[in-house]
Structures are given as C-alpha cells and as structure tokens.
TrEMBL record:
Residue stretches spanning the membrane: none
InterPro entries: ARM-like (IPR011989), ARM-type_fold (IPR016024), ARMC7 (IPR042462)
Name of the molecule in the record: 2216_t:CDS:1
Gene3D superfamilies, alphabetized: Leucine-rich Repeat Variant
Domain of life: Eukaryota
Length: 94
C-alpha cells in the first residue's frame, strides 16, 4: 500500500518521529553498526521504504541510493541482495 501525507501524519501522531528523521536514524544505524544482523535488518527496512513513492525524495536527500550502490561492492551476498532490492524498488519511481 502506498502512503499519503495524511496517512503518515495519522500514524506518526503529534509526538512521533517525522519520517525524514526516522529514515536518517536508519541510515546512521546502518553506517555505525558493526553487527551484521543489524545491518541486514536496517538495509532491508530501507529497501522496503524505497517501495513507497512518498519516501523517494527523502531517500534521495539522505543519499540512500549511494548506500544501496555501495552494497553492490560488498563481499557479503545478503548485503548485495538487500541493496539491489532497494535499487529495484526505487527504480519504480524514476
């Protein structure tokens, strides 16, 4: 299901974390953790966010596209898979 800004506002509530800030937290966590399982989970989450067009501008702003591209040079096949999935999801909008 694709989101609307109104839907995001309802889900986030007045005291929730705005989507851009949440995505930034995910990027920071991915870049700062050395735990492989955490990297998989965060990268998979970012790839899932790339599926919804409402997130495209934020993901581009946060250079998540570069993050996905960087995973393609990793030796870890799971990171490559999630990075490629994120790129594929983003391609739907551009």
């Amino acid at each position: 299901m694709f989101s609307t800004y109104r839907h995001l506002e309802r889900r986030t509530g007045k005291s929730g974390t705005p989507r851009l800030d949440y995505l930034q937290e995910l990027v920071d966590e991915y870049q700062n953790t050395s735990d492989k399982e955490a990297k998989y989970q965060v990268l998979a989450n970012l790839a899932n966010f790339a599926y919804d067009p409402i997130n495209y501008d934020w993901l581009w702003e946060l250079n998540v596209v570069d993050l996905f591209l960087d995973t393609l040079t990793e030796s870890d096949e799971k990171l490559k898979e999630f990075g490629l999935g994120g790129l594929c999801n983003l391609c739907l909008g551009y």
